[in-house]
Give the backbone structure.
Amino acid sequence: MATTTYELSTPRRPQFIDNLISSLAVFFLALRRNRAGMFGFIGLVIYAVWVLIGPRFVPFDSEVRLDQITAPPGSRLVLVTRSADAGQYRTLDDLNGRVVGVLNNSGGEAMVEPYEEAGTLEVETERFSNGRGVPELLESLAEGEVDAVILFSTSLKQYLSDTRRREEFADLTVSNPELGPPYLLGTDTQGRDIFSHIIHGGTGLITTALAAGLMSTLIAVTLGALAALIGGVVDNLITAVANLVLTIPSFPLLVVLAALIQLNNSLLLALLIALLSWPVLMRAVRSQVLSLRERDYVEAAFALDLGLPHIILREILPNMMSFVAINFIFAVTKAMYDQVGLIFLGMVPINDYTWGVMLYFGRTRGTLFSPDSASMVLAPVLAIALFQVSMVLFARSLEEMFDPRLRTAK
Amino acid sequence: MNDVILQVENLSIVYKSPRGEVKATTNVSLQLRRGETLALIGESGSGKTTLSLSFIRMLPNSAKITQGKILYTRDGVTRDVLQLSDKDIRRFRWSDCAMVFQGAQNAFNPVLRVRQQFADTAIAHGQTDREWIKKRTLELFKLVRLDPERVFEAYPHELSGGMRQRTLLALGVLLDPQIVILDEPTTALDILTQRAIIDVLKEMQKRLNFSIIFISHDLALAAEMADRVATMYAGEIVEQGTVDDIFYRPLHPYTLGLIRSVPKLKREQDELMSIPGEPPNLIKPPSGCKFHPRCQFATEKCKVDPPMLVEYEPGHSAACWHTDKVVEARAAFAAQDKV
Amino acid sequence: MESILKLEGVSRSFKKGRVNIPVLQNVDLSVTPLEFLCLVGESGCGKTTTGKILSGLLKPSSGRVLFEGQDVSKLRGEAYRRYRRSVQIIHQDPYASLNPSQTIYRILSYPLFRHNLVRNTAQARERVAELLTRVDLTPAGDIIDKYPHQLSGGQRQRVSIARALTTNPSVIIADEAVSMVDVSIRIGLLNMLMDMRTSLNVTIVFITHDLALAKYFAWDGRIAVMYLGRIVEIGHTPDVIGEPQHPYTRVLLSAIPEADPEKTRSKQHIALRSEDIPRLTELPPGCAFHPRCPWFIEGVCDVEVPRLELVPNAASDAEVACIPLTRGEPLTLYTP
């Protein structure tokens, strides 16, 4: 054999980087064409940031404030004074050397604490019990025992409109309606900020859903590929098991299993969900692989004796990636529903304060029955729903993206 | 019977693709007479399919006709197909000019019986007399050698591939068009099925007297059926003439190459030549004569100057600067063959 | 000379639901080393299935496949792997035969690495470039890192051929390898395949429905004509094409349109008695061709299945599966 030198340039980058770059290019090109997919993608990016970074910036509000129970979005602490003082006393600094009245176990209490410690304010605390305490505070204000009172806006409205005491409180006015920061989403049944709960409540759910989706997809792809490529007894066995699992209604079974097993570990929950949802994907993967198996290049790989692992991993799977990716996304959405469903029904021990848990408490504590408190249920519902919508829109755009018609654009 | 019923003048079609503008056809001019069969021979990238689609104005949305006319004459009235209104073009399609697509054996709706599809087609193009449709359909089935009653009532999947092909041919001539366009009618068909289709086509044409344009890369089909042949390369007509002109006296190197690359069934071994190179890139076509990168007779002039179609004999024209070299090569082959 | 591949009494059927479709019936075929053999026939004749059984991608339902004299189903370990490497295929569709997600380099280097024919990337790239040059894909540097969709149909077929060559096979089965390629390029590809016999010592079995192409390819070799799962005529190409004997072969040759107007328009076509091709599930008794055969003899052709035998006193040395012919009787047109 003559030694000839072939003029080859060594490739600039390894193949998989090339693949990645061109896939990304096709991806963004397709997104540009598909509005819905673009929304989905942006939605997912927002959720990713929210779930990963949000919790660092927004602390979880665990402080119980008895006077701020189930407050509607936008409510905040206000400063009440006698009308004469309204112009003078606006902020807590204005009240230097004065006496301020607050309720026990309330947001006002927390607010004046630093001032009290520093000695700039004297604080009178009224005990709060069953809605009492607010009129007492207002009375002390009206009678001059305290110079200002910090109250939560809804309780204030409630009391000032109480006809019995309207004349008594006629002299009182809100000098600063914006003393405290607004509660963007209102407060829950313990007076805690729902917004912070929403920020923190996604991580657990999303990670579990992702884990469940991943496990489900892995099981389905492996079993589907093996069933299709090996065939025979193996195929029959796997298909039989899949059919068996399919005939069992998965959610009721999940409920029963949840009742029987201690699902403390969210990974365990993810596994359980995965174990009940793999059959559908497995059948789809199996038929995909069955058809891919007939492709000429797969046949050539058999003829060249490239080996079963190579054929699955290098010949068949890469040509199924789009299919697997889309089904992975759907598996995650299903896992999300399953989880939330279980939590909502109270079938799962509550460790983390997730959106699902908020739904559970929202239901059990009757927050759905009042427009003010509905935020405790609606906010998580919206958070979950928007997540699902983003996933689904994104998955649909992936479908379009992997359409071979678009491939020729390379 | 020598009237020209279709005249294409300087037709140029481009279309947008993600990679750039594809010049599918450039300055194509043709004529078709009544009862005549014209073969458009070309390979991938020749523009022949785009051209045929333009005749019935079924180009994809990304295509644009940048210049040219398609003049159609019926009963003494000539109109430009490209200027027809939407209503008129629907009348034109199928009743004046029908097209049978390639691999169209799956063109039938699997849930409708054959007779329903024939009726639907006829009605869609303006013919509403069901009695007439039925009578005509059965007649046509006899003509294409199908069992009329059986096929009339059948579902498409009950017919074999060859039978479906013939049914499709019958559908094509249902409304008595003047022109039938066939796109690769015999490609990938078995020998005996091909033979049946060719015979059926010949008979139909004799009986119904329509003109045929067929688009193919199959030279044997052209030799069997065509009266005139035009060879296309890179969106242009490079040679046209009678079937004898093209097969026995080719003037363009591409035509010569094509003819010499088809094995013949004679009793001796063939001396065949293949055309080197790859099909042309229609987005950035070669300069000058588009065939020059693959032509054994190419000179500097060919790289720069695109040749025009020149008539060398009555009715026989070619676009090449060196037809004399082709004639020489032809003679050399002929001598070789005789030996 | 001992055959390199041999089919002995090979039959193959497929199950479709509850129906058994006999695609091949009792086929005997012997491939001599370094010969050009063509399998010709129309769709449904079983030539593709024969090709797959020859290449070991399909197992016969009954009968034996022998490679270099040994029963393939009994090979194990290294012997089996050697057989597997020695027989390769080339497919028909250039658009489906290469994995779209792999570069040409990957496609050609996987087998090299798998069979330890190269030790590192540098060697692999060198060998791949060599293979590409051998199939006239030059300069190799232009092609080696491209993806299949960036190449034309003809170029892809060449890559398929290069891939088949990676394991240094002794037999290549080419299944309609040029049918989907432009006419002007076909001959170039075919010439290249034919050249590999002398330059690489490869035996080629070419499967096609185009008799003219078969003739060109196998002029120095043999043609086997197949019909409905059986070989009906097999012999040296000049004999089969020049002096066709089996009725089916005669009908085929008379029906082929040719690229020569005078010749093809004056050709006499032999008419078949019936246009209908029998289904494989309802094969006629005796000779499968008899319902359509113009020279059908009642009581003879519809009773016994004919076997491939020589015709006495014939100019041609081809073996024919036709009872009247092999009995030495002249063919007479059937009159009902």
